[in-house]
């Protein structure tokens, strides 16, 4: 039986902010990282090492890594699209590189301007560079559009599993499956994660779900049942891929923290503190589409403190 | 193995409209019922036989039943709080009476001004009146606040199961469990529905979930896994009990229809038609808090027609 301890990796600063046009000031991002850490989050994806002309919102990623690395016990992730980005990530001292690999050829070409097999080759070069640098930075391949693609439509599970094998063969440390555009459903999640686990074992280390069509939390539950114990999520459910039309909204970190807490599965997260941070982030992002549900009602009376119920 | 066929019972006209101050004109409600039936819904709760001075929004329930009964194959439900309401329901020709029974004593007193054991006695009188009238109207007891209560907090599962036994002993046809205030989580749902099924067998016929804290769809999935095949839901996720503070939002009918369709479980519902009806209802309820997620993005490309993706 897998452990009941669940890890929520906050990806709002990367997946969230990449989908929002405005640039959140670095000082606010630092406050976000610090508050998330104080609320008990121990894994945060702080940004991407992509060319600043493509995503100027994330141009301060190196500075964010440097600060985040000062917080005890925090694992600092960054997204890396290619070897050049990987070199910057190694230099920054990040603990983990998230390497996206689209199962959809159409999305891969739109997002990385490379076909999936070319991305696999680049991942091999990244692994070699990491090893040559003597870096301890973990490599995690996130297989995106694993449940379908807004550009090409259907994505065959066999294709996802082939790419999973190829990714593992490059020698990366971990793999994860991502429903980039909110096409997954609990049955599909159960089937694909079960098959992926048979191939990857404990190296299958993350589920990444968007809540585009209301099934995000149910899909997390389906993956949890197969044994997955790490999930990406973003505060206020922000998120979306610029090259995946209609890909709005990661599962909300605060809703996932509540899900696990209500089932008695420890995440180490202080939910009232996380909701306070959500309020702050919502102010910074005033006018943007935010998501998530818990923040309206607050914690139930059975999970005191329950400020919202008390005030209702 | 239970069948894959799932029934969604639309309760927006009752649970939804009772929580909204404005009165939707009867003509709109008739259009709602007709459009929902055209979209494939075959069970609709059209209103409540409560005193009109308490819920003037639902004062036209008898007229709605009369119209709904003209639609072929439609099972017409009404909520009934006491014997007097039951007499009106029998007279109206409704197919099913939903009899609420709060597991929380505090909620029971606030909602029905009776303690749970007094409600059980009233249910016995309702059953006798139904039989004496030679009516075929089904009796379903909905055990509300089964997972907790915003007034008293914790509700003991043992208390819920005792009430379930007592309700079955009155000779009603069906029972269901309701998370009236959005306190349930998938583990609690799994545990309580499994225990309830052991007591009620096939007479356990409905799961009723609110999405107050984001777990509504995941809770539906948990109940589905225990064998439940009927779920209450409301269009645009409207709903809430006037005597249960903070009890906002049923699971959205359109999101549940999408959940089951995406898993290949037939509901008979035409989702694009249901989304059209949602648009109409959202116009009628302009300014009210609406919920649900699918309507923003529309169906995925893999489930054509997908108007929203095509337009994105």
Describe this structure in words.
Two copies of one chain form a homodimer. With 312 residues, the first copy, chain A, is of the alpha/beta class. Chain A has a single domain, classed as Aldolase class I (TIM Barrel, Alpha-Beta Barrel). Chain A contains 13 helices and eight strands. Chain A has helices at 12-16, 26-38, 61-68, 83-92, 105-112, 116-132, 157-169, 186-200, 216-226, 253-262, 271-284, 294-297, 307-311, and strands at residues 7-10, 43-48, 75-79, 96-102, 138-144, 174-179, 204-209, 230-233. An eight-stranded parallel β-barrel of chain A has the order 1-2-3-4-5-6-7-8, surrounded by nine helices. In chain A, strand 2, helix 3 (61-68) and strand 3 form a beta-alpha-beta unit. In chain A, helix 2 (26-38) packs antiparallel against helix 11 (271-284), helix 4 runs parallel beside helix 6 and helix 7 (157-169) packs parallel to helix 8 (186-200). The longest helix of chain A is centred in the middle third of the chain and has 17 residues, at 116-132. Chain A is globular, with a radius of gyration of 18 Å. The N and C termini of chain A lie far apart (41 Å). The A-B interface holds A 148-150, 153-154, 181-183, 185-188, 211-215, 217-218, 220-222, 245-246, 248, 252, 255, 258-259, 262-264, 292-294, 296-297, 300-302, 308-309, 312 and B 148-150, 153-154, 181-183, 185-188, 211-215, 217-218, 220-222, 245-246, 248, 252, 255, 258-259, 262-264, 292-294, 296-297, 300-302, 308-309, 312.
């Amino acid at each position: 039986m897998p452990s009941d301890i669940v890890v929520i990796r906050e990806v709002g600063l990367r997946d969230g902010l990449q989908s929002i046009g405005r640039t959140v000031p670095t000082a606010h991002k630092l406050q976000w990282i610090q508050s998330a850490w104080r609320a008990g989050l121990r894994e945060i994806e702080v940004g991407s090492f992509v060319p600043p002309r493509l995503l100027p919102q994330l141009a301060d990623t190196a500075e964010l890594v440097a600060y985040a690395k000062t917080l005890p016990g925090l694992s600092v992730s960054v997204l890396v699209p290619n070897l050049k980005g990987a070199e910057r990530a190694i230099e920054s001292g990040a603990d983990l590189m998230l390497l996206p690999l689209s199962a959809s050829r159409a999305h891969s070409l739109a997002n990385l301007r490379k076909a999936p097999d070319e991305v696999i080759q680049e991942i091999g070069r990244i692994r070699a560079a990491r090893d040559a640098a003597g870096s301890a930075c973990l490599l995690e391949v996130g297989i995106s559009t694993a449940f379908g693609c807004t550009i090409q439509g259907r994505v065959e599970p066999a294709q996802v599993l082939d790419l999973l094998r190829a990714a593992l063969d490059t020698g990366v440390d971990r793999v994860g499956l991502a429903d980039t555009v909110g096409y997954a459903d609990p049955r599909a999640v159960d089937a694909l994660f079960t098959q992926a686990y048979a191939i990857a074992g404990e190296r299958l280390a993350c589920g990444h779900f968007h809540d585009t069509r209301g099934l995000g939390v149910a899909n997390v539950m389906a993956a949890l049942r197969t044994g997955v114990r790490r999930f990406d999520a973003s505060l206020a459910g922000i998120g979306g891929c610029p090259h995946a039309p209609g890909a709005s909204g990661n599962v909300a970190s605060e809703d996932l923290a509540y899900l696990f807490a209500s089932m008695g599965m420890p995440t180490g997260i202080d939910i009232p503190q996380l909701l306070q941070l959500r309020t702050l982030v919502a102010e910074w992002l005033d006018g943007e589409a935010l998501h998530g549900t818990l923040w309206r009602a607050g914690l139930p009376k059975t999970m005191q403190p329950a400020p919202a119920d008390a005030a209702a």
